[in-house]
Write a structure and sequence with these properties.
Largest sheet: 7 strands, mixed
Number of helices: 7
Shape: elongated
Number of strands: 14
Helix content: 25-40%
Radius of gyration: 26 Å
């Protein structure tokens, strides 16, 4: 890392008779602030007979660059240690935990059934923690490693990739629509709305501006809203791609203005983007979610 000094000339492989064996790696971290690895290097030198030693000077300490003051946080220094371990080859395997923040709807309809099975087959030692919530996990505070969001973040040292644009349309359950006859006006149907106090979703704004009919059911859960439409309880403005997931749904033409196009973003912290486990999940999600673009 440009901002950190690390050293440790002792190789991980050592001779054991006619063979070479892999020795464990010990990462040595100094206290501080204001200290460096020299404070204990001599005392711990004897460990080099049984292990590969890696000494790290934290950001702003010892031989490391000062860097921006706001980067000298425990979370950022923890990421530095993981990055150093990866660079030295002690974490090359795609294994361990990756925390993925997303909505429950995306988890149920896309990520779990369509993307996770292949990811698990490719990386059986990887553990994915699904953090399902409408509130955005704070990546800057390391509440998650990766997030799938419907907006682009505007602050912090984050990597954000737009993976899909999702058109919306008025959807209804086929039998319900058929039962209402041939008339195709908004006031001829019941409607299922989404409402979350303190937040105006684009779909809710569109409904208020163009439909002119109050919902008979409102929910603060997209999953419940979709379930109500699938049960034949009314129409709703939803992402058009749901018709592929739920074949009982169909798009209804009511002569209304087009619905908003939602953007799907994949986000992670720049400091951990290239860690093998994070990169594996990020790249897999990016490929899979791009298949939804424009549907």
């Amino acid at each position: 890392l440009p901002s950190d000094w690390f050293g440790g000339p002792h190789e991980a492989d050592a001779p054991d008779g006619p063979a070479m064996v892999r020795r464990p790696t010990v990462v040595l971290l100094h206290g501080g602030p204001g200290m460096d690895h020299a404070s204990f290097k001599t005392e711990l030198a004897s460990l080099r007979e049984i292990a590969q030693l890696v000494y790290i000077d934290h950001r702003g300490n010892g031989r490391s660059d000062d860097g921006p003051r706001e980067d000298r946080t425990p979370a950022r220094r923890g990421d530095d240690v993981r990055s150093v371990c990866d660079a030295r080859g002690s974490e090359r395997a795609v294994a361990g935990h990756v925390r993925l923040a997303l909505t429950e709807g995306l988890s149920l309809t896309v990520v779990v059934p369509m993307l996770l099975p292949e990811l698990r087959r490719a990386y059986p030692e990887l553990v994915v923690d699904l953090l399902c919530d409408y509130a955005s996990a704070d990546l800057l505070q390391r509440e998650a490693d990766i997030a799938i969001r419907f907006y682009r973040p505007t602050r912090g040292d984050l990597v954000a990739t737009r993976v899909a644009r999702l058109p919306t349309a008025v959807l209804g359950q086929r039998d319900y629509v058929r039962s209402r006859g041939r008339r195709r006006t908004p006031d001829h149907f019941d409607w299922v709305g989404f409402h979350m106090p303190g937040f105006r979703a684009p779909e809710e704004q569109w409904h208020q501006q163009h439909v002119g009919v109050a919902p008979v059911i409102r929910s603060n859960s997209y999953v419940s809203q979709v379930a109500a439409v699938r049960a034949g309880l009314g129409l709703a403005l939803l992402t058009r791609s749901l018709c592929r997931v739920h074949p009982e749904l169909r798009e209804i033409e009511l002569g209304l203005p087009e619905g908003p196009v939602l953007e799907l973003w994949l986000v992670t912290h720049r400091a951990i983007r290239d860690l093998p486990r994070v990169a594996a999940v990020f790249d897999h999600l990016e490929t899979g979610l791009r298949a939804l673009d424009g549907i």
